[in-house]
Amino acid sequence: MTTITLGEREIRETVTMREAIDAVRRGFIDLAAGEFEMPTRTALRDGRFLVMSAHHRSTASAMTKTLSVDFDRKPAITGTVVWSETGRPDHLVADAAVVTTLRAGAAVGVATDLLAAPDAGRLALIGAGAQAPDQVRAVHAVRRLRQLTVVDADPRRAHALVEALKPELPGVELLTAADAESAVRRAEIVCCATNATSPLFPESALPAQVHVNAIGAYRPTMRELPDELLADSTVVIDELGAALEESGEIIHAVEAGAISRDALTELGAALTVPDTEYGKRTVFKTVGVAVQDWAIAHLLAGKFLT
Question: Quick one: 117-288 is in which CATH superfamily?
């Protein structure tokens, strides 16, 4: 038996963001087609320890991810992703932190490509933590950015992220903002990547046409978006069961009567309906599902296991 172990350097040098987006898009389409067995993840100690798994029927391959989350620690996410295939003696083990940030970015890239206006190029990013760089890279891969505005509770982190991304974004106007409300006022795309427990901005702060991605709140006790935004938008989620069990925004909005379950569209289903007309305001809410991790692991397996 051969075990291939991959760290951040090997993964970053091998997988482009465009490849990750394409892989995650195919994964969501297969999820909608019933190709996956994917139980809702196990969350222990209010989400500090997570276990996720997915089995892809047509390839007889499976992925299991275990990780711990501690926002007071650097890195905040640690763990492993294990990929294996029935009948093959070799398997792959990858750093869960880089797979998680890459797959979260890729999912946002898929959703932004589907939902944002074709000419959208002004991105407001709220949260400058470990997830933030791949959020920017993913949006930039599907919508050529003209302007990026970053805001964080710690202004130093916002400035540091802008400086770090400069070499990757030539010609893009790079700014920081003092607060989320001012950052989103002229945005065409918004990415929220925080551990907030209450909405980051009021619905009234947003332009009439905008696409919002929210990846940070992954437990019922966490929220990044206001009910009013969800009520006034086309809302796409990663997977219904996961959103209703884990997304603080969705749970709160449904219980408040701001949105109904029937108004929620899974990303995989949305991808299979061509030429759909969406409203001027769109939201993609993801808590992260195992098919995303499987997609990145499957991509890595194709490159490293022969």
Answer: NAD(P)-binding Rossmann-like Domain (3.40.50.720)
